[in-house]
Automatic annotation (TrEMBL):
It catalyses: Exonucleolytic cleavage of poly(A) to 5'-AMP. Pfam families: PAN2_N, RNase_T, UCH_1. This is USP domain-containing protein. GO terms for molecular function: metal ion binding; nucleic acid binding; poly(A)-specific ribonuclease activity. Residues 416-436 are annotated as: Disordered. The keyword Cell division does not apply. The keyword Disulfide bond does not apply. CDD domains: PAN2_exo. Keywords: Cytoplasm, Exonuclease, Hydrolase, Metal-binding, mRNA processing, Nuclease, Nucleus. PANTHER family: DEADENYLATION COMPLEX CATALYTIC SUBUNIT PAN2 (PTHR15728), PAN2-PAN3 DEADENYLATION COMPLEX CATALYTIC SUBUNIT PAN2 (PTHR15728:SF0). It comes from Blomia tropicalis. GO terms for cellular component: P-body; PAN complex. Residues 468-989 form the USP domain. GO terms for biological process: mRNA processing; nuclear-transcribed mRNA poly(A) tail shortening.
Length: 1251
């Protein structure tokens, strides 16, 4: 077939080319995504061409940019995100428009020659395999830029140390050196499989389907190999073959190109029959073809020579590069100015047509007669100089490649508003704030579900803190960050975790179990709150208050998340109060105090919720008709702000004399828009309300509409929970007016006011100058000789240890101010005076209660088309860091004593508290070592580098599993255009001090009774005692202790199926994951006389609708989980959960197969040293494959299990037997050899069990 010339051009060479540097084409490739031809040359310059609709020129230049000034471009490859360019020492990813995305360099890159891009069928990931004149083959993850594997390809005799060519295949990774040696490695594990010995130096090779073809310009031979039989099929003589490549649509046809510009198509089934030879008309004498590629449609062939010319031959003038072509991205079209007719239009001013009108004169006109005429000798053409870039901009500039990005300060650089739609110029790349003012850390993050299922998703990339996050994929997980707010309140966390009762759906118990998970989970594994949400859904009031989100996205956009978050907090606190009040023994928690002396008594039983959150009021009623008065106690939590839309607030209201009405329920004018109301004043008037209500008068014996109510504070709470009430536009407008007036007043006083995050960045730029001033002050003042022991408050000498404190104090109070105060001062004066202030300057000592802001929950939304997201800014107190480090060191000491086989009293270990801060923390284990037998010699309890308390950055932004440290300025910023504060919490300052010093308050008691293990009560109505399949533990003889072995397995049912979408390349992507619920849990004794006999075999009763019982894989049949139909030992999830928690807390070691997924669904965090997983126990370090339990049982034990269905007791016994088998192999020293034989046997039989 004839392939005529379609296009030829010269590629760009750049601006730094010397006379001694080569400029020819070194590599070219067709884009696999868009209609683009990429050309790279020896000068390190990259040029691209795109098809043009013009009939005179079929390709036009698209982009041109430089890659490397030192080396040539040795290979090009394209992917979804851009183009990859390989040079001698690095690989660079560039967008198709030329912007660099990343440049990856490494000490392992000595002399790179080739690369291969492998798409892993994920949304945002892929792998690059790099090799060259070096002994290392590097597998690099493009998403994290980490070296996943580094394989030494030159160690063994069959390897190669000089890799010049590399090609990919679904089964193999093919490597070749310049001498002609070809090595085939496994595509997944990169293990050496086969080699083809060299016959002569090769100039190119390619692999496709069942054939591998090489060509040699020296021997002029075309060698064809069959990779099914691993042998040479034929060798054909050709004329100076230099390049070859398979056609994309034919697995037996390839194109061979000679050095002097001839190419032809060869059919490998009959290589001697050569088709028509096509000639390339090279433009210069002595030119040789140096690069070659074929398009995916086989319609175009691209060639490049060593004189920098590019040639395209094709089947027709109008060709396509890809089967499903995508249009290339272009710059925004600049709209021309509108046309105005100066002759016919008499009404349009000339200034609207152009800023500088230009008047045209006839060619015969004499310009010297004009007044404005200047002789040319006296005129010098100059241009307006570019204004210099200010130092503030340079200091905050973020440089990516050769382009600098900086946040545009308001009013400094004018922005041009265009109406261009779908413009790539408006994309958020390079800008922290994206297309709006909301930073990326506030956006809702949804993980890659395909990678999460394979345990390949790295959550730690989004978590820049030592705290674990919460899974955002669970239904109704919008409250994750509000749960984190409650968790980081130390006294509340202690009270909730100490509560355990017998109620099945107790919200306090489930919240305590979740808090315990957050205590022990590592940061790279988000916790699931599925058990808490399960109990949450069973409460009838949840549906009545509309606290369950709809699944339909259309209905979801109609949900008012600002109102939802406030209703959730109010409901949860009242529900916890009801449940704790109904508990038989609920003493007042230590550390909870009533700071106002009063005769107020509560009729209901006290609970820890009322002790910490309750604002106790006295409601004074008076009947206007009969003047009868009476009182009634009232507990208020949380406090909701009421806005005076109709009335003007008093400036200094006394206790009970507020005139604020019912806030958002009122309607009318906006008479208070220009009246400034501080936050403290607004809170005071929201508490001390005076209103007219309808109530029953006992003296009149009837209901009246004119009963006046006045509230007086009786007792202050330890924690002030405040609902802002910003669930309507009128309340938001009220905040905007007050913030605007506050900003104006504060700026007049010389204070810095925070209204948005751009001002926060400006504030950070001023801090270095402020620190410099403090340092100069210390250098000019003589140091105090007493140092830290100086007790004089008026000492005039310099104290170095107070430098940071002075700087923090100045940053906190001297630089910025916010309408939301970081501290509140509540004054309790005589004669019932009560007021709240945000400054302590006017308060008398001894009468002030100080409250500090500890968390702010906000609802953020980037634009109208996106969903709302609830985030929380939380202040982490020093007590949390201290207690966490002590718990870590206790566990480390206990583990060290266990390894030394020292018997230690359990009570003695629990009471250890004197721990040194200089103790070495345990090392962190890798994921594949966390559940093996050898890993129990180390400890991965929390983090190897646990962060210490930082007085400067003690605020963190919690966005599900994305946690980032932020400044107090960002917390108090009030940019209501995208961030609406929903709830605020203030805590007494002295309560934090009590938490640090009071060990009783910090200690969390383990109240799980050991008798839960001996319980065999079933909720099933049809079960008979003879059908019980387990023997409960006899606590008098076989109480499990630390280090005892227990085999465990669990079965699950599916509550909803996953939703997937089919991509254009034929792969499937998960857009909504499936959700499972535990259905059966079995535990088997691992030692003793009753070894192998189960002591737990519970079927879990569920009220949720089951979508799929998965009987083939779980053994669960319809009706087994129904209390009215089941004949199994059916229990509640909480009952079985307590059994497992007791085993975990007592240090029992679990043995099983795939326990990581089991514990995740059960919502149980087990320390890695207490888990031995046979999945990782029998996994070879040379393979990624995880062997199934059935194949392990067949290979090592000779057992046939899971033939028809799965049984958790059988699986647990099998895992226990495999554990003992591994111990036996380890004793004889042949464990690794047996594992290698396991994988060899699996490959031989295709991993299928044969009986």
């Amino acid at each position: 077939m004839d392939y005529p010339l379609i296009f030829s051009s010269v590629a760009d060479v750049g601006s730094n080319i010397g006379p001694d540097k080569l400029t020819g084409v070194s590599s070219l490739t067709f884009d696999t995504e868009q209609e683009i031809l990429w050309v790279g040359n020896y000068s390190g310059h990259l040029t691209s061409f795109v098809p043009n609709s013009s009939s005179y020129n079929n390709l036009v230049k698209y982009t041109s940019f430089h890659i490397d000034y030192e080396s040539d471009i040795r290979q090009l490859s394209t992917c979804r995100d851009g183009v990859l360019s390989l040079t001698k020492t690095f690989v660079r990813m560039s967008k198709r428009r030329g912007l660099p995305q990343f440049t990856h360099k490494s000490d392992l890159f000595k002399d790179l020659q080739c690369m291969h891009y492998k798409n892993t069928n994920e949304n945002k990931s892929g792998h690059i395999y790099l090799a060259g004149n070096q002994e290392k083959l590097i597998d690099c993850d493009m998403e994290t830029l980490k070296h996943v594997r580094v394989v030494n390809i030159g160690d063994d005799k069959q390897g190669i140390s000089d890799c010049k060519y590399m090609k990919g295949h679904p089964k193999f990774m093919c490597l070749a050196d310049g001498e002609g040696k070809i090595v085939l490695r496994d595509a997944d594990m990169l293990n050496l499989l086969h080699e083809f010995k060299p016959t002569s130096p090769i100039s190119s090779f390619d692999v496709c389907g069942n054939y591998l073809v090489t060509c040699s310009a020296y021997s002029q031979l075309l060698m064809i190999y069959d990779i099914r039989e691993m042998k040479l099929v034929s060798a054909t003589q050709t004329y100076l073959p230099m390049h070859l490549k398979f056609l994309s649509r034919f697995t037996t046809k390839c194109c061979i190109v000679s050095r002097n510009g001839q190419f032809s198509i060869v059919d490998l089934t009959s290589p001697s029959n050569v088709n028509q030879i096509n000639n390339i008309a090279l433009h210069s004498y002595g030119a040789e073809i140096s690069a070659f590629d074929v398009s995916a449609t086989d319609q175009a062939f691209a060639f490049g020579d060593n004189h920098n010319f590019v040639y395209v031959h094709g089947t027709c003038d109008k060709f396509h590069i890809n089967t499903n072509p995508k249009q290339a991205e272009y710059a925004d079209v600049i709209m021309p100015p509108p046309y105005y007719s100066l002759t016919s239009d008499c009404y349009t001013p000339v200034s609207e047509i152009s800023q500088f009108p230009y008047y045209a004169f006839s060619k015969l006109a004499d310009f010297r007669n004009l007044v404005s005429h200047m002789p040319s000798k006296q005129c010098i053409r100059t241009y307006r100089p570019t204004p210099p870039i200010g130092p503030d901009i340079l200091r905050s500039m973020k440089v990516v490649g050769n382009i600098g990005y900086v946040v545009n300060p308001s009013g400094m650089i004018p922005s041009l508003n265009t109406n261009a739609n779908n413009s790539r110029r408006n994309s958020p790349e390079g800008n922290e704030f994206g297309t709006d003012q909301m930073p990326h850390r506030y956006h809702f993050l949804e993980p890659n579900h395909n990678m999460v299922d394979k345990d390949e998703y790295d959550f730690s990339r989004f978590n820049h803190s030592p705290f674990p996050g919460l899974d955002s994929t669970m239904p109704n997980s919008y409250a994750n960050n509000m749960i984190q707010c409650l968790y980081f309140i130390p006294p509340l966390r202690s009270a909730i975790e100490s509560h355990i009762c017998g109620k099945e759906y107790c919200l306090i118990c489930e919240l305590g179990f979740l808090f315990h998970m957050l205590d022990t989970a590592p940061k790279h594994t988000p916790c699931q709150a599925s058990n808490f949400l399960r109990a949450f859904r069973t409460i009838p009031e949840v549906s009545a208050f509309k606290l369950i989100l709809p699944e339909d996205e259309t209905l979801l956009k109609q949900v008012n998340f600002r109102k939802l978050s406030q209703q959730w907090l109010r409901f949860l606190l009242h529900q916890l109060n009801r449940e704790s009040s109904n508990t038989p023994s609920s003493p007042q928690q230590p550390g909870a105090k009533n700071y106002l002396n009063t005769d107020f008594t509560e009729n209901s039983k006290a609970s820890f919720v009322t002790d910490y959150f309750s604002l106790r009021l006295t409601r004074n009623f008076q009947c206007i008709k009969c003047r009868h008065t009476w009182q009634s106690p009232h507990d208020s939590f949380p406090v909701t702000l009421n806005y005076p839309f109709n009335q003007i607030l008093n400036n200094t209201p006394t206790n009970g004399e507020s005139s604020a009405g019912n806030g958002s329920n009122q309607s009318g004018g906006t008479g208070t828009e220009n009246v400034f109301v501080g936050f403290a004043e607004l809170l005071t008037n929201s508490i001390l309300t005076r209103q007219t209500i309808q109530a029953f008068c006992s003296q009149c014996q009837k209901f009246h509409h004119n009963i006046t109510e006045k509230r007086i504070v009786s007792s202050l709470p330890n924690i002030f929970a405040i609902n802002t009430g910003l669930d309507n536009e009128r309340a938001i407008k009220f905040w905007q007016n007050q913030i605007s007036q506050f900003s104006t007043t504060s700026k007049n006083k010389g204070k810095y006011v925070i209204t948005n995050l751009e001002e926060v960045e400006k504030n950070k730029q001023k801090q270095p100058e402020q620190s410099k001033t403090i340092a100069q002050t210390g250098a000019n003042v003589k140091a105090c000789r007493y140092g830290q022991n100086c007790m004089r408050s008026d000492c005039k000498f310099y104290h170095a240890h107070l430098e940071n404190e002075n700087e923090n104090e100045l940053n906190a109070h001297g630089q910025f101010a916010s309408w939301i105060p970081p501290k509140l001062y509540i004054v309790n004066g005589d004669n019932g005076l009560f007021e709240i202030k945000d400054k302590c300057s006017d308060c008398l000592e001894g009468q002030v209660n100080e409250y500090c802001l500890i968390n702010v929950t906000s609802v953020v939304k980037s634009d109208e088309n996106s969903f709302d997201n609830i985030v929380s800014a939380i202040k982490i107190d020093k007590a949390y860091f201290c207690e966490r480090k002590k718990q870590l060191m206790k566990k480390r000491r206990r583990h060290m004593r266990t390894n030394n086989e020292t018997m230690v009293n359990q009570d003695q270990l629990e009471n250890e508290s004197d721990l040194s801060d200089s103790d070495e923390l345990p090392c962190e284990l890798e994921d594949n070592q966390m559940f093996t037998l050898d890993s129990r010699s180390c400890l991965n309890d929390f983090e190897k580098n646990i962060l210490s308390h930082d007085t400067i950055n003690e605020w963190y932004l919690f966005n599900h599993y994305s946690i980032n440290p932020i400044s107090i300025e960002e917390v108090l910023s009030t940019d209501l255009s995208w961030k609406i504060p929903a709830t605020l919490m203030y805590i007494r300052s002295d309560l934090i001090g009590d938490m640090i010093n009071n060990k009783t308050l910090r200690r969390i008691k383990n109240q799980i009774d050991p008798n839960v293990l001996s319980s065999d009560i079933s909720v099933a109505l049809k079960i008979q005692s003879c059908l019980i399949s387990f023997v409960p533990l006899d606590l008098s003889k076989e109480l499990l202790r630390r280090g005892d072995i227990v085999a465990m397995d669990a079965e699950f049912v599916m509550l909803n199926h996953e939703e997937t979408e089919l991509r254009s390349d034929g792969t499937r992507s998960t857009i909504k994951p499936s959700h499972k619920s535990v259905a059966r849990i079995s535990c088997v004794r691992g030692s003793g006389q009753m070894q192998g006999i189960p002591f737990i075999d519970d079927y879990i009763c569920t009220q949720d609708q089951v979508a799929d019982y998965m009987t083939k894989f779980s053994g669960i049949k319809p009706g087994d989980l129904d209390a009215t139909l089941s004949s199994k030992h059916l229990t509640t999830l909480k009952s079985t959960y307590l059994k497992l928690r007791f085993l975990v807390d007592n240090g029992v070691i679990f043995v099983g197969h795939g326990l990581r997924n089991d514990f995740r669904v059960i919502n149980l965090v087990v320390p890695p040293e207490q888990v031995i997983d046979t999945v990782y126990l029998f996994q070879s370090p040379n393979y990624k494959r995880k062997v199934s339990l059935r194949f392990l049982a067949w290979h090592f034990l000779g057992l046939n299990i899971q033939s028809e269905t799965h049984d958790s007791v059988e699986d647990a016994k099998t895992a226990l037997a495999l554990y003992h088998k591994y111990k036996e192999l380890e004793t004889t020293g042949c464990a690794q050899e047996a594992i290698e034989e396991l994988y060899k046997a699996g490959k031989d039989c295709g991993w299928k069990v044969d009986y």
